[in-house]
Amino acid sequence: MRISSIAYLTGRGFQNIWNNRIMSVASFCILTVSMLLVGFSVLFTENINTFIGNVEEKNEVVIFLNDNLTDDDISIMGDRLRQMDNIKSVEFYSKDQAFEDMKAGMDNAEELFDYIGDESPLPDAYRLKVADISRMSSTLMSINSLQGIYSVKAPTDFVSVLTGLRSLVYILSGIIIIALIVVSIVIISNAARASVDMRKREIAIMKYVGATNTFIEVPFFIEGMIMGIFAGTAAILLTWAGYVKIIDVLMSDSTIWLAMGIKGFIPFSKVALRMAIVYITAGAVVGSFGTLLSTKKYVKV
Amino acid sequence: MVELRNVSVTYSNGVRALNNVSLTINDGDFVFLVGKSGAGKSTLIKLLIKEISPTSGSVAVNGYELNKIRANEIPKLRRTIGYVFQDFKLIDNMSVYDNVAFVLRSIDAPVKYIRRRVAYVLGLVGLKDKAKVHPNELSGGEQQRVAIARALVNDPKLIIADEPTGNLDPKTTIEIIELLQGINKCDTTVLMVTHEHDLVRRFGGRIISIYEGQVNFDDVI
After folding, report:
1. ipTM value
2. Which of A62, A65, A151, A192 holds its CA 20 to 30 A away from the CA of A211?
3. B103 and A209 in contact by Cβ < 8 A?
4. CATH code for the structural domain at A61-154
């Protein structure tokens, strides 16, 4: 195809937007709103996942060791724990340190500590953090298989609640996002069909004078793509403005979130580039192919 | 050249629009195709531009066997045919120039050739000074001239004019037919569909009459 023809067809694409400006504005709004809904749902899900992740980080398994272990035994056990799968961090917590912390945490108990004496009555311990709490039970089984353990304290109830909550969020958000995408595609294809329907006469004339399907479809494809890119750009700007505003309002009293173990929301800058690429690409693809598919039935003259 | 051999067309609703029609239109002919509404004229035209296929029989137009033609060859067939509609079928949001030029653009013709050729055909139909005007700013006769220019611009072998004067006053009607006759003198075959018998009697020539799906008259008067 000649460069002049490509330039002409591209120009027709732009011209079509202006010539059919009412339908263009309608398609633009529908595309933008659809992307906004999907985008905000994804952001909501991502934030919920981050919150759960924040809470997960608070998980701690404490392994109390037998009193008769030597320093070498304790060190070997530490190495074994570090080599285990799904262990994120291992920290030794000596019985002396534990006793000091206990004293510091109990005011007005001098008499009790005088009675106990200077030697710590507490056991040595390891404090662990697991990488994936959903695999907590198998990790605990591995830990319990080690020799020299007096007891293991793990937040198993807390883990099962969190794991259940995360699954629920995944399923619900997945359903909502898929439903929104399906609804968006239906609405967008209807808008594209209505837009093309208004120009079926024009398409029929082109067919009668011997225009190829490509010649007819390319301007529609370009028109849809341009609309999609505009809508994607508008959607990312609106998402940015809306998200920042919502975060500002929610974080006006951050103590509530901190009390819940939530450090903060995902900053928009962290997802901006990814979202912009997805929005604009999705807009261009849905816009161009949605319009193109709608022209198909009219080019069969 | 147009050749129909034992062509019948039966629509899905059971209506038999054409019944065993055979006819030949040679290159350079000027033919009036006449008949009442529902006689089968439109069906015959649809066959020639491959909008429909015959139920039986064979159709050949400008060297294309339409029974065997592939889908990607249909645009090529249509470029050998100039089609003039009763209601002009111009694209309102395009200028007169663009309405004519897009036929050549659709075949990827060079820009310089498009400029030269469009100016030439607009001159032929007497509308060179209206190139930048939009169709809705023109009279009915002028719009039909644009449609004829569009049909001519690709230098077709055959022009099918489907009731081209149906929406025009008598004076403009005569102008349009004279224009088509002028085009025919340059060896372009013209098939003009009409139900205006006065017009046929006035201009004469070869007449094909269709009645209830069959050719009941084919002669020169």
Report:
1. 0.80
2. A192
3. yes
4. 3.30.70.3040
